[in-house]
Amino acid sequence: LPATSLSYKFNFIKMAMALSSAATVRAFSQVVAAKQTVVSKARAVVTKAGSEELYVETGASTYSGNYDEALWPNWADNKTDEEITKSAEVELMHGRWAMLGCAGAWGAEVGTGINWFQAGAVCTPEDCTGIVFPGQVIPLAPEGSGFPQFYNVLAGTVILMGLSEAYRTGLTAPAFPELEVGDLHPGGEHFDPLNLAESPSFDFDRMKIAELKHARLAMLSWLGYMSQAVATNCDNPFGIGSETWPSYIEGAKGPYANWQDHVADPFVENVWKYTGLFQ
């Protein structure tokens, strides 16, 4: 065959191989992209917002996508994207509960005089009529009526919390059409009725970082609440070998009462008094 013919055939074969390779690469890329889309969708709640210019502390926030530095160095090693996303979600949810818990414990003790670790004694199967709320003027039920009843309160709590968890986890369809399972910042008319997230004077990214910092602080604070209950009320500051626990000690002091004592006499009423150090 003439050299030109061989050259044409050779070039045609190379072109066909190139096209075939390109098609293969494209198909493989589409498969990988599809998988990444699933991962990205699961991870979107963590990475979709946030600016590290707002996070001045050491490391990085979980909104940055820089998971090697978030929380503590290399904490994301050997974790899948789903595990990383789940950890970030759990941290924020625990932090939100801690913020509610700290505020609730303080508000209840200030408003009713009942500390958080003895609040359960107010509503028992034997008597649940002692429930009061800070600033309450009208009782929940007429005196002597026997209401509220323990099992009614229990059933209502289980139903409300069960529905909340079912909506959150996707066990049932979202309560509102704009909500998406796994989105911890849903916004919309039901969770952001003032539309603050879209307001030019409201920095949504900054507020998310601020919430995360407050959440972490609240979790540490709640650890302090629990430590205070044991350290200032039990036989020893660590509760080891204690005959009873704060919930069963009449007159046990809550965090607000301890704070008042500390403010009144800071050099005596402090942690060293209860640990026995430097006394």
Description:
The structure is a single chain. The protein has 279 residues and is mainly alpha-helical. It is built from seven helices and no strands.
Give a short overview.
With 279 residues, the chain is mostly helical. The protein has seven helices and no strands.
Note the beta-strand portion.
under 5%
Give the averaged pLDDT, no decimals: 79
Radius of gyration: 29 Å
Cα(first) to Cα(last) distance is 106 Å
Main beta-sheet annotation: none
3D shape: globular
Derived from helix and strand composition plus strand pairing, the structural class reads mainly alpha
H/E element order? HHHHHHH
The tally of beta strands, per DSSP, is 0
Helix content range of the residues, please?
40-55%
Ranges where pLDDT stays below 50 over 5 or more residues in a row are 1-51
Q: How many alpha or pi helices?
A: 7
